[in-house]
Structures are given as structure tokens and as C-alpha cells.
Design goal:
Number of strands: 8
Oligomer: single chain
Distance between the termini: 64 Å
Order of helices and strands: EHEHEHHEEEEHE
Length: 167
């Protein structure tokens, strides 16, 4: 008789370095697909350090996307995403109806929140230069981050259209 193992919980606590940050993003997206998270908010000045060019990340997003799903991206600018994350850009074009990309200019690039929020788990980089931060499921941490990201969204404008129409 084979026992099914329960999925491992997402990491909690401090992390340090780009590799640890990228792995937490991968783990979160795999968990979102597995558990059917209804929505997520990603925030970063330019998403350059995020593993969005990886096949496994896009596969997790494909498994996650569907009816009733919502992904909000908040960025200072999206040009790095378009240049460096081709797989993600293709995925975003296919799933435009579940993705809302917003440009937020009220934060300086060095102070822009780098975070992944979900109703279940959050992750935030506190020191961008060293890519250190914290993640967890604590309700207070989730509420405070959501409030900050909601304020950023309120002061944002649409950005990174899935298609560019010319005249």
C-alpha cells in the first residue's frame, strides 16, 4: 500500500540570496497551482530577479490559471519583463483575461516593494541589494502587505498591455 505524502508547506521565516528568493517564488507558484489559489499580487520594481523565464514557472502558471483566477502585477516599469522573460510574456498574452499589470510611480525604484502576496502566504524582500527577506502565513503580515499593495494599486495606472495596437 502506497501512502500519499501531503504537500510540503511553503517555507516560513527568513531567506537570504537570489537563489533562495527565486526558489520561494517557484514554490509559491507550484503551491498556487496545486491548491487553486484564487488570486495573487506580485510586486517588484522591474521583476528582473524573478524566475519568470523558466519553463517550470510557466508550467505552474498554466496549471494555476483558469476561471475565477486573478493575478495583479505592480511594477515601476515592465520593460525588463518584456526583454528578459519571454516565456512569461507569451503566457501573459494567452492569459490576459486573468492578469492585471499596473505601473506604480509613487515609490522610488530602490524603495519599491518586492513581494508576492496571496490570501494564504506572503513573501517580501526587505533588502533588495542582498535579496534578503521573510515569508510566512501570519495573518498580520498578510494584512499589512495587502494594505500596502492595495495603496500602490490605487495610485497606479495600466501598464504592459498584452498587445500593442498601432495605427
Amino acid at each position: 500500500m502506497t501512502e500519499l505524502l501531503a504537500p510540503s508547506p511553503l517555507p516560513e521565516g527568513n531567506f537570504s540570496g537570489l537563489a533562495a528568493f527565486a526558489q520561494r517564488v517557484r514554490d509559491a507558484l507550484a503551491c498556487a497551482a496545486r491548491e487553486g489559489w484564487s488570486h495573487m499580487v506580485w510586486s517588484d520594481a522591474n521583476f528582473l530577479d524573478w524566475p519568470l523565464r523558466e519553463k517550470a514557472v510557466v508550467e505552474s502558471l498554466n496549471a494555476w490559471a483558469g476561471s475565477g483566477r486573478r493575478l495583479v502585477l505592480l511594477a515601476h516599469r515592465f520593460d525588463e519583463v518584456q526583454r528578459h522573460h519571454v516565456r512569461f510574456v507569451q503566457w501573459r498574452n494567452t492569459w490576459d483575461h486573468v492578469v492585471d499589470c499596473r505601473v506604480c510611480k509613487q515609490h522610488d525604484v530602490s524603495e519599491f516593494p518586492s513581494a508576492l502576496w496571496s490570501p494564504h502566504w506572503v513573501m517580501r524582500r526587505l533588502d533588495l541589494e542582498h535579496s534578503t527577506g521573510i515569508s510566512g502565513t501570519e495573518p498580520q503580515r498578510r494584512v499589512l502587505l495587502k494594505e500596502e499593495l492595495d495603496e500602490c494599486r490605487r495610485q497606479s495606472s495600466p501598464g504592459f498591455p498584452s498587445t500593442i495596437l498601432g495605427l
